[in-house]
Description:
Layout: E1 5-6, E2 31-35, H1 44-54, E3 59-65, H2 66-75, E4 80-84, H3 97-106, E5 109-112, H4 119-131, E6 137-140, H5 142-146, H6 153-156, E7 162-164, H7 168-175, H8 179-184, H9 186-197, E8 200-203, E9 208-211, E10 217-220, H10 232-245, H11 250-271, H12 279-282, H13 286-295
Parallel strand pairs: 1-10, 2-3, 2-5, 3-4, 5-6, 6-7, 7-8
Antiparallel strand pairs: 8-9, 9-10
Amino acid sequence: MSAPEEISLANIGKFALPSLAGTVDKSSRGQVLVVGGGNTVPGAVLLTGLAALRAGAGKLQLATTRAAAMTLGVAVPEAAVIGLDEAHSGELGPGGAGELQPRVEAADAVVVGPGMMDPESAGALALDLMGAATSASFLLDAAAMTGVDYEDRRVRALAGRLVLTPHAGEMAKLRGVPREAVEDDPLGMARGLARAAQAVVVMKGSDSFIVSPDGRAWRHSDGVVGLATSGSGDVLAGVVGGLLARRASPLAAAAWGVCLHGAAGARLAERIGPLGFLARELLDEIPSLLATADRAGTP
């Protein structure tokens, strides 16, 4: 297998984003549905949803527990918010899938998992939502990603439309190996998961790898240590989800998402310091980074 290519905003032009030239309205920029949150981490859905809008998605819907829905709706007035019943774990369970089905059918991208910590309920909900998908791309994160059975026909039906975003601990659960084995060979683990799930895999770490189902790989080495902070992964999931909603391919969305996320962290590290900037502060950097890349001649 060939070595991974190095990738950054400086050379990302090979991954084309859909043009927004001509007449554009919010529907043409795509609709993203973010499903997640719970009693423990209700704010994760907020970070993911705002990141999707910062990446250019036109419409945003957030689905979370009824207990958190009103607060989330006030905090994110740009979004439609759907409150769903909680499972025994205090998180969303599969019982909410039926209510979300028409929203999944209408969405261009669905992000499931931010803020969810119970793999059993999150995985069951994710599978039911994937079964309702007609054309939407999916990104699975956190417990929704580790709780899914990747042999299930509903996952198989999404081949070519699925993105997974594990860190080392999550990859260890997914591959059934010790965390140390992932840290010793993150690229090999990512290639194995991408092939098994027929998904684009973003293996997060100090060096992040983007891997396609056929084993092609790219390495992003421009991240900063400050990105290892609470909520950072939720922002990354939202940026990728927003680009998927704009109808970027899963590979292009993942590559751009990783590079934008890393560049945003680098800007904050320079302005604030290498440590201590907040995940929410990444959000403000994304639009200008996208615009700068466009002015430099990238798609």
